[in-house]
Write a structure and sequence with these properties.
The chain is built from 5 helices and 3 strands.
Length: 108
């Protein structure tokens, strides 16, 4: 039951606050972001667990991502939060980038 409700945490009108923002700088000096809750990310990834609570223990509430696009990173976050995606509509290049992130963050 709880996993079914996880996608609600990512909705803009959710009363559950986010506590981490991932920032993606674009070429025109604008920034895109992905928001989430650290504890959920830590449950879904031992890499996030170490980053937020373990040996790395980042105290920041913002992390700049330079090796992935905001769109691909958002799909990875959606997966951790049990949000449904339409995998058939994603390109091979997009899926390869997603695979890279899944390996990097040890998401299985």
């Amino acid at each position: 039951m709880a996993a079914h409700n996880l996608p609600k945490c990512l909705e803009p009108n959710s009363i559950i606050p986010t506590d981490i923002r991932f920032l993606f700088k674009l070429g025109n000096d604008s920034v895109k972001e992905v928001k989430a809750q650290k504890v959920i990310l830590a449950i879904g990834s031992d890499v996030f667990e170490r980053e937020f609570y373990g040996s790395i223990n980042e105290k920041k509430d913002e992390v700049t991502i330079v090796d992935a696009s905001q769109e691909v990173f958002q799909v990875m976050i959606d997966f951790i939060f049990n949000k449904q995606s339409n995998w058939k509509d994603l390109s091979i290049s997009f899926l390869c980038s997603l695979y890279y992130l899944a390996e990097k963050y040890n998401i299985g």
